UniProtKB/TrEMBL annotation:
UniProt domain Cytochrome c: residue ranges: 54-156, 207-328
Any matching Pfam family: CCP_MauG
Organism: Methylobacterium brachiatum
Its EC number(s): 1.11.1.5
GO function term, MF aspect, one: cytochrome-c peroxidase activity
UniProt-annotated location(s): Periplasm
Enzyme class: oxidoreductase
The name this protein goes by in its record: Cytochrome c peroxidase
InterPro entries per the UniProt record, alphabetical: Cyt_c-like_dom, Cyt_c-like_dom_sf, Cytochrome_c_Peroxidase/MauG, Di-haem_cyt_c_peroxidsae, MauG/Cytc_peroxidase
Key word Transcription present: no
Predominant location: periplasm
Amino acid sequence: MAWKVGAGIAVLLGLVGVAAGLGSDADPRRAGWREAYRPPAEIPFPSENPYSAAKAELGRQLFFDPILSGDGTRTCATCHLPDLGWGDGRARAATRMQGDMDLRTPTLINVAWQDGPMGWDGKFPTLESVAAMPMTSPSNMNLPMADALARLSADARYASAFASAFDDPAITRERLEAALATFERLIVAGTTPFDRWIAGDEAAIGAAAKRGFDLFNGRADCASCHSGWSFTDNSFHDIGVGTGADIGRGRFKPTSVALRYAFKTPTLREIGRRAPYMHDGSAPTLEAVIDLYNRGGIDRPSRSRAIKPLHLSATERADLLAFLGTLATERSRDLTTASFTAAVPAP
């Protein structure tokens, strides 16, 4: 089920038409490529967890409230900071003892459009299933689910909020997960210079970024994985990074050579705010990411067939970097304090 969004998420509305805008150095396929990046008009919500303003507001409160951690020092926003592209700026997420977790914190931007298994290694079948693991993990929020539900039930504010968000006022694990997922689906990328260019404003991005777009979709073939408006195919690929016991989807598909070091393709939205990069934070800058793809990563049987040395010139690498720079939101929406009473209209 999907409801049309309100004006607060401007990137999803009012973008019509794509001008060809081909310069003398443009790839002749550019106009066709641009069509693939038109934004959707709706945020999708699953039929088993449809949108409601009360549920979204409850999810927002829960996301930023330390009531869901054992000692009251951590929240969901401890690792998913809005100012850091809904990541945490670390190579690997921090444990509550300030050690390192196995993987980098993934962004929540455009999570509503993620299909199939979620997480770097696909350990979560749905968005609703994600919250329980960090909440109950001793190294993370360290709060058993039964204790979390008891705390919320004893809090008059939450008792009232759950009663408003659900037909049955009982506070259950399923309703806690549903509220958090509803809020998280509203974490949507805002309008960027790239989006204005796709809408037909030829002056929105520069010539270098346009050449970078051609490379991204053409010879460099970045779009084979980072495809469409959200810049991800929602699939898992070995790009020649993981080694040893640091495995990805192969954790759950051990007989598949192709999936052994395969990690999920992340969105490139707000990519400039989300350093370091890769599942393990091993690429400190976007320049390092481009260099990795340029040399093709580790050559091995499991590496994706699409990954191979690109032999890009310094100018071409600079053009790709210029293009990635156009994917940053010009004006972000503050979801830490936003009220969702009118964010999505009633059906």
